[in-house]
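[Automated response] Your request has been received and processed.

Submitted sequence:
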Amino acid sequence: MVDNSLSPHGGVLIERVAPWDAAAAGGRRCLAHLPRIAVRDQIARECVNLAYGFFSPLEGFMGRADLDSVARQMTLDSGYVWSIPIVLDLADAEVAQLGLKPGDTVLLTYQEQPLATLEVTEIYSYDKEFLARQVYGTTEEAHPGALRTYGYQDKFVAGPVTLINPPRINPPFDRFWQTPRQLRQILADRGWNRVVAHQTRNVPHAGHEWLMKGAWLAAAADGVLVSAVIGEKKPGDYIDEAIVLTHDLLREAGFFRQETHLTSTLMWDMRYAGPREAVFHALVRKNLGCTHHMFGRDHAGVGSYYDTYAAHRVFEDLPDLGIKSVLTLEWWYCPVCGGVAYEGLCGHREQKQDLAGTLIRRIIQGGAEPAPTTLRAEVLEVVRECADKYGFGSPFVADTYLENRTPVMSMPALDCACTCSDP
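Generated structure:
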């Protein structure tokens, strides 16, 4: 019997990677003959995630039946739970110009280099307002996920994706990025049978540290896998390098034992879908080999669109996903207790001092040395080093960073010249 808690979602880890030199040797059609679609950053990242199995059991971009089922009932057409649309959008004019139709094979390019092939199974349209309402619970453009949905082009192009030119992951991310198969092997080599995932887009303050430690205890876990989301950035966010390197510092500085903590990255553009995104995060981390996923307050939320603990309740109405939720309340600093305290235990709510992001930002920007009860001095040192080395003087995203940073992934040059005899 397969242990569902350790199996990828759907039971099989999808891998659709065929570097073109090997594929060409097998008689595959030459790249020069394929119609081309240049994809934006988000779609490029999703091609990589689809091909390596981060999104198992998906093999490619969703067709209408899957998208409609996800929108209406949070499952794929096959019945497997899935909560977030994964779609490739294209303008009517481009569909017409390329003469696209089901049965075609398309070359997807990124940074002016081949990235992947797409075997077109369907080209269709879908009601964007309905999709936004179903997935995000709102049609307001103030919600970034709804706004993203309204920005989709006229048509969705569905079909399996095969990665033919694996991108190069640039430093410092290269040592933190692994495919699901690679990461599963690392966890197995460590002997981690119970692994709790921590989703993060932030530099860790004391509350984050104790969130992880509390979840490790609650899950009786062998280790904590920090899964740092690296993707679309907006001004004011922490720079990606600071997020990854400060989390790794917690282990390097001994705040976690070497054998209980591991930092990794997930290339994903947040949808801020609250409870639905919590389900998505759980399924992706299941594909990485995790058995548990921690969820705190306002997980993947934005503004006041979702209740504080909506991400806790969403799992109550779902079948067993094969990954258990570790649901945690808030961690704060309590001056009466004299340290970081847990909402479920501390009786001094009126005296609590929130470990909020705005407080941590004031510490970082103000130049003052923090108390260990708010932000580790070692973490602050790495933040400042990242600001100098990667952030053009700031650990927070600014226009200069967006324009001049080294991209997380770069495409190696691939010769597309036709050397075969096929017409």
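Summary generated for your ticket: The CA atoms of residues 39 and 110 lie 6 Å apart. The chain has 14 helices and 17 strands.
If you did not submit this request, please reply to this message.
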